[in-house]
């Protein structure tokens, strides 16, 4: 409990209940702080203990200098932790392993227990194997249980073995939507103390909760485990970017168009490591669903959070989603008492300022490979024709009606890991030409058609980003209705799917009478989960897949998700676009990206050509159905027994006991190796000598590149391991589903099919040069790492800018560490991955400003020495170290940013640090 140096304890009376609170106005300077920093200040007041949190920390935050660069460390204690199954299963594996490690070192294993609510939603495991049929949902769920039975049994054991740990079973919804609709408290009431709900999650899009005023963000699984065990999160007091919204969205635009515009603006501005906070009159006019969409895509901006203060719109949403009147009254009274209530006319002090007039937002999509690459829909055809030249080397036909001016100059960075711009281009490719390589395909049912570059092979309404928003979902349903009435349906080569974030979505679509129309054009329910957004697209029809691969067709995917990185959506699809749900359906009807969808007919209807304007719903239509079709009863019914699950879930056999009985034959769940041979005290940190380069990578390397979540390719080390353990190819499942097995995940590290290791020329996939072998031949990265390990050779990775962007995937750091990588040297890092590397005992180093591997002449063939790391043994953190590489010498910045992170690194990782602390207590 707080040491209460500021006399801040007080009582808040709400109706007939009284709550203890820690008053912000007891601290001088608190009133001028932005909303997000006020929440952090309350956190420090309540957790002040004179050690981790002191009065000086509180004064430092209250006296925040908006113009200063972050330098002061504070300890943030989140109220709860939320997980999804891909990242959550390894968390529970680690906790189970920690229990055994504590026992083996003479401690009490039951002390390994979450100290605050830890909730998991199983949403990442359903794959779209079946689509376009009335029974698609039931069949996909059945396959999901067959594939994941071992994992689900393990999670059910965890639910019984650990206090404060609850699991939302499969088929319920997507974690972030379930969070804002049900799990989020906004204001906590625990033991008679009221305080702001704060929550970190093992998924980068945890920031969706920012839309309802909950401060939180995505962290790696290892950091989440520490938080569950009561370890505060070490952070620097951040810079806060104020983003002013004015005006209202024009007719014909959606929340998706808005968030893609904001993503583009904030990426250009630069907000990595910063808080973003929205304010202004435009916020008050913004529906809660739109706020949640913006919060959800905070990782795509690069910011730590993207938060909205509490106001009447927040209360209305809490009431709609079935929160109790007592809870709603507490939220309102607490927010107003503590200065956390939105003042639309006010302007708090911020570090930096941006502004957007909502009336300037235009219909947009983003692609073909990054969320920040926004395209006005009016430019989509010309931009596709420009970008496809990076993916197609043959098949260019004569110029058509498009003029040279239709093709914006390419701005793709040639050295970008996430850009294919360095691939060979066709000699005949000129501005104004288009690729043309029609291939005749005949399906098993006799359907015959031509497939060409630009064909939309996947059109998926997926992801919590947009399916949580009733305006865009009802808009999609109305567009489907009008399309059916005009005699339209999806093109036969398009794989369509509808995977909402919660059961409430299907309830209101059904109540509005829109479901039959969605079904008729192929948008049958396929599951409640992330599906296509995380690469669980499932296979294309075999005839289509073969035609695409045999003829090297650059087909496309259009999805209502938040990520469109290369190799993520489908191995058959080269170009991926993000769009609103109505626009996703429009492209499914058109069947191609090579269309001016605003002006060309999208399809031939029963009475002639049909244009998008003929079927696009009016805002008034959408609003009327949203108002009349969505009720509180949907949420109270669907969440009444949210942890109970269906008969399949309840019928699973559950192992018993406080420690888990590992099955030696399991290929899904295995005891983690992180504590093998761990001593009570850590060994001294050492410099790194004789290291070789495992991979030399370009810019924008994502955690998908480092640790893919999708399918396991036959012939790769992970596939070889599974087949050696008796797993048939059809039962490989995905990397994401096997994150509880380190043997699979080590072999899958750097195994993305689109990874480009610059140690090799023109090669994609998980390969490197193996300098332990004569001639340094091409080898799988895993195989080479094993050879280096046999010679006790440490490894390094060289990288460009934005290393580790994307998902909060802790396996991107775990796999890196287990391969034997001691250090990464990059031009810059995304926040979560840098933190995860330290949490696994990997040293993140940064090239000095203006320098890179290329500018220093590094080829990756050198042997590296890194000197100066041992200074960490003296208690501080050196600002730089010296790197020597075959006669070259340069200085690298040490990106251990806080004293807490230094403690983690000295212990070999955050889990070892926490475990040793528990044993000392």
UniProtKB/TrEMBL annotation:
Residues 719-849 form the Aconitase A/isopropylmalate dehydratase small subunit swivel domain. Residues 395-439 are annotated as: Disordered. One of its GO terms (molecular function) is aconitate hydratase activity. CDD domains: AcnA_IRP, AcnA_IRP_Swivel. Pfam families: Aconitase (PF00330), Aconitase_C (PF00694). It comes from the Bacteria. The keyword Zinc does not apply. One of its GO terms (biological process) is tricarboxylic acid cycle. Keywords: 4Fe-4S, Iron, Iron-sulfur, Lyase, Metal-binding, RNA-binding, Tricarboxylic acid cycle. Its cofactor is [4Fe-4S] cluster. Its EC number is 4.2.1.3. It catalyses: citrate = D-threo-isocitrate. Pathway: Carbohydrate metabolism; tricarboxylic acid cycle; isocitrate from oxaloacetate: step 2/2. It is an enzyme of class 4 (lyase). The keyword Iron-sulfur applies. Residues 64-591 form the Aconitase/3-isopropylmalate dehydratase large subunit alpha/beta/alpha domain. Belongs to the aconitase/IPM isomerase family. Catalyzes the isomerization of citrate to isocitrate via cis-aconitate. This is Aconitate hydratase. It comes from Actinomadura rubteroloni. The lineage of its organism: Bacteria, Bacillati, Actinomycetota, Actinomycetes, Streptosporangiales. The gene is acnA.
């Amino acid at each position: 409990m707080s040491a209460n140096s500021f006399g801040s304890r007080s009582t808040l009376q709400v109706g007939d209940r009284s709550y203890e609170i820690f008053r912000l106005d007891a601290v001088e300077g608190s009133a001028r702080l932005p909303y997000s920093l006020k929440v952090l200040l309350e956190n420090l007041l309540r957790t002040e203990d004179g050690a981790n949190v002191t009065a000086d920390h509180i004064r430092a935050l209250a006296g925040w200098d908006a113009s200063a660069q972050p330098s002061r460390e504070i300890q943030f204690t989140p109220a709860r932790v939320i997980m999804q199954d891909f990242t959550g299963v390894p968390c529970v594996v680690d906790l189970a392993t920690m229990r055994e490690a504590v026992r083996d070192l003479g401690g009490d294993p039951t002390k390994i227990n979450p100290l605050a609510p830890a909730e998991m939603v199983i949403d990442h495991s359903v794959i779209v194997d079946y689509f376009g049929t009335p029974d698609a949902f039931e069949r996909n769920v059945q396959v999901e249980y067959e594939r994941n039975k071992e994992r689900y049994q393990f999670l059910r054991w965890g639910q019984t073995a650990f206090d404060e740990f609850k699991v939302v079973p499969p088929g319920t919804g997507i974690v972030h939507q379930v969070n804002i609709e049900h799990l989020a408290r906004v204001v906590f009431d625990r033991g008679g103390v009221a305080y702001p709900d704060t929550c970190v999650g093992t998924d980068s899009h945890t920031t969706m909760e920012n839309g309802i005023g909950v401060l939180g963000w995505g962290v790696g699984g290892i950091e989440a485990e520490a938080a569950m065990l009561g370890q505060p999160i070490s952070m620097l007091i951040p810079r806060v970017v104020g983003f002013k919204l004015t005006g209202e969205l024009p007719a014909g635009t959606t929340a998706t168009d808005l968030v893609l515009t904001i993503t583009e603006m904030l990426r250009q501005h630069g907000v990595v490591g910063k808080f973003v906070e929205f304010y202004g009159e435009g916020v008050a006019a913004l529906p809660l669903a739109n706020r949640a969409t913006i919060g959800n895509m905070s990782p795509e901006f690069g910011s730590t959070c993207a938060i909205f203060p509490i106001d009447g719109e927040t209360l209305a949403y809490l009431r709609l989603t079935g929160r109790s009147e007592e809870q709603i009254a507490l939220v309102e009274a607490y927010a107003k008492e503590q200065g956390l209530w939105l003042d639309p006319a006010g302007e708090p002090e911020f570090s930096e300022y941006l502004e957007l007039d909502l009336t300037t937002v235009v219909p947009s999509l983003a692609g073909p490979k990054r969320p920040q690459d926004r395209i006005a829909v009016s430019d989509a055809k010309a931009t596709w024709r420009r970008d496809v030249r990076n993916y197609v080397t043959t098949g260019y036909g004569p110029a058509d009606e498009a003029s040279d001016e239709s093709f914006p100059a390419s701005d793709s960075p040639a050295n970008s890991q996430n850009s294919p711009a360095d691939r060979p281009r066709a000699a005949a490719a000129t501005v104004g030409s288009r690729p043309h390589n029609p291939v005749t395909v005949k399906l098993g049912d006799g359907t015959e058609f031509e497939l060409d570059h630009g064909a939309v092979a996947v059109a998926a309404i997926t992801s919590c980003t947009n399916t949580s928003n009733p305006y865009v979902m009802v808009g999609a349903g109305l567009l489907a209705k009008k399309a059916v009435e005009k005699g339209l349906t999806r093109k036969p080569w398009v794989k369509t799917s509808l995977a909402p974030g919660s059961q409430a979505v299907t309830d209101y679509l059904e109540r509005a009478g829109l479901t039959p129309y969605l079904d008729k054009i192929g948008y049958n329910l396929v599951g409640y989960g992330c599906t296509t957004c995380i690469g669980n697209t499932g296979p294309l029809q075999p005839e289509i897949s073969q035609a695409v691969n045999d003829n090297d067709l650059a087909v496309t995917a259009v999805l209502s998700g938040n990520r469109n990185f290369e190799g993520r959506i489908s191995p058959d699809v080269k170009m991926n676009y993000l769009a609103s749900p109505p626009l996703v359906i429009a492209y499914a009807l058109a069947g191609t990206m090579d269309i001016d969808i605003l002006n060309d007919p999208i399809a031939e209807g029963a009475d002639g050509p049909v244009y998008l304007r003929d079927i696009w719903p009016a805002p008034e239509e959408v609003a009327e159905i949203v108002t009349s079709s969505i009720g509180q009863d949907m949420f109270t019914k669907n969440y009444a027994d949210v942890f109970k699950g269906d008969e399949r879930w309840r019928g699973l056999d559950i192992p018993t006991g406080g420690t888990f009985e590992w099955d030696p034959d399991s290929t899904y769940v295995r005891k983690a190796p992180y504590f093998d041979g761990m001593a009570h005290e850590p060994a001294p940190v050492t410099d790194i000598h004789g290291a070789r380069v495992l991979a030399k990578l370009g810019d924008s390397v994502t955690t998908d590149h480092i640790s893919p979540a999708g399918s396991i390719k036959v012939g790769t080390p992970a596939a070889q391991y599974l087949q050696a353990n008796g797993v048939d190819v059809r039962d490989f499942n995905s990397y994401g589903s096997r994150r509880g097995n380190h043997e699979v995940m080590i072999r899958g590290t750097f195994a993305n099919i689109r990874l480009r290791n610059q140690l090799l020329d023109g090669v994609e996939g998980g390969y490197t040069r193996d300098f332990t072998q004569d001639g340094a031949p091409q080898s799988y990265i895993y195989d080479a790492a094993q050879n280096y390990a046999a010679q006790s050779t440490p490894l390094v990775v060289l990288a460009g800018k934005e290393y580790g962007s994307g998902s909060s995937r802790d396996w991107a750091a775990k796999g890196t560490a287990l391969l034997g990588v001691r250090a990464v040297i990059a031009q810059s890092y995304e926040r979560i991955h840098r933190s995860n590397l330290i949490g696994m005992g990997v040293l993140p180093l940064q090239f000095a400003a203006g320098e890179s591997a290329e500018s220093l002449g590094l080829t990756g063939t050198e042997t590296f020495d890194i000197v100066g790391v041992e200074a960490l043994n003296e208690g501080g953190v050196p600002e730089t170290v010296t790197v020597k590489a075959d006669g070259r010498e340069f200085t690298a910045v040490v990106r251990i940013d806080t004293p807490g992170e230094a403690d983690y690194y000295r212990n070999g990782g955050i889990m070892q640090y926490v475990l040793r602390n528990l044993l000392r207590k």
